[in-house]
Amino acid sequence: MQAVLEQKEEDTRLCQIKGKSFEGMFPLVKDPTKTAKVLMVHGVGSHIPGYSTQLLEGLSDEMSLNRISKITKNIALTDVLDPTKKLGNLRITRSTNEDGSHELLFYELTWSEITDEQKKILAYDNSGEYSFRRAAVNDILKKFTNDTAPDPMIYLGTSHEDILISFAQSFCWMVSKEWADLPASSTSRQVCNPAQLLSAVENMQKNHYAFISHSLGSRIVIDGLQRIARLLGDRQNKRRKMVAEEFVKTFQQLQFPIFMLSNQLPLLQLGRKLPEVTGQHDSYCKADGEHYNSRIVSETSIIAFSDPNDLLSYALPHGFIEQYIDSRLCAHSTNININVATVIDAFGIGFANPLKAHLAYETDKRVIAMLVNGVGNENTSPIIHGRCRILITTDD
Fold it and tell me: Which residues contact 167 (CB under 8 A, 6 or more apart)?
C-alpha cells in the first residue's frame, strides 16, 4: 500500500509559451551596477500585508538571495492632494546574496483597504444565519465569491481613481527613494510628492524595474501606467506641473517587464473606453517614428500567465495590445498557458479545481523558473525546456 501511495506519476500538465522571448528577473538582480526593484500588485479579494511572502521566498531561493533585511518597511499610503485618504499599505523587503552584489527590493502593494469597507454590505451573507443552509463546498465557494466578485465592480466605480492613486504612490516611492532613504515603518499616512521625482532622475538611472500582478492587479498596473502616460502628456495638469522635464526624458529610457499571473486584461476591457493613443506603435516606439520623442517608456513587456481551467483568466488575443494598450507604452506580449492546477480524472470526467487554477501560481516551480530566468534565452531553466512547449514569434 505504501509503495502505491508514494509512486510518482509524470507531470503532464499543460505548459505552452507563445510570443516574444523575454528575460526574467535574475538578469536585473545580478547586475552589480544596479538595484532591481519589483512592485507586486494583488488582485481581487481582501489581502493583508505580507500576502506575497511565499512568492518572494520562491523567487529568492531560485536566485540564491539568502540574506534578508532585519526590518521590513511599511508605508501607509495616502494622496498628495488629500492626505486624509487611506489608500492601503506598501511593504518593502530587501534581499541580497551573501556578498551583497545581487540586490532585490521587493515592493508589495496592498490596496484592498480601499474596497474592504464597501464589501461589508455582503457580510451578512457569510454569517451563520445564512451560511449553515448551504452545502459545505458551496459555502466555501460563496464566501470566496462574496470576497472577490465585488472588487472589479468597485474598481470600475467610485474607487477607481483612489486605487490608481495608490498604485501611483507606490510607484513614486519605488522610483524616488533608495532603501536607506525610505521611511521606517509607521502607522501615520505618508505621501510621496511628485516634486520628489526631480531627485529620482539619478536613482532611475541606477535601478532596474519590474512588476508582478495577479488577476485584477494586471488591470491596475496597465491602467496605472496609462494614467502616468496621460499625466506626463498633459502639461496643464496640476500633478504634471510638479514633474520636471528631466524626469520625463529619463523615464522614456526605462523598460518595464510586467508578469501578469491569472491575467484578466481581456475580461476587464469590456465596456471601457479606449486609451488616448492606440494603433500607433511604430510611430511612438521606433527611433525613426514621427512621435518617438513623445513615448512614455522605451519598452513594456507583458508576460500573461493563464490557466485554461481558471474561470477568470484569459490569454491575450492577437491584436489586443495594438488596439487596447496605449501606444506610448511601447508594449508587446507573450502568452503562457499553463496548468497550475492538476487535472484529475473523476469518474471518467476531467476536472481541475478552479480556485487552485486561479491562485496556485506562487507554488508552481515552472512559474518561478520563468519569472526568474525568462524564456527563449540562454538562461532559460531546464525545467522549462523539459516540460513546456516554446513557440517564439519573430518579426518576419
Answer: 41, 109, 111, 220, 221, 223, 224
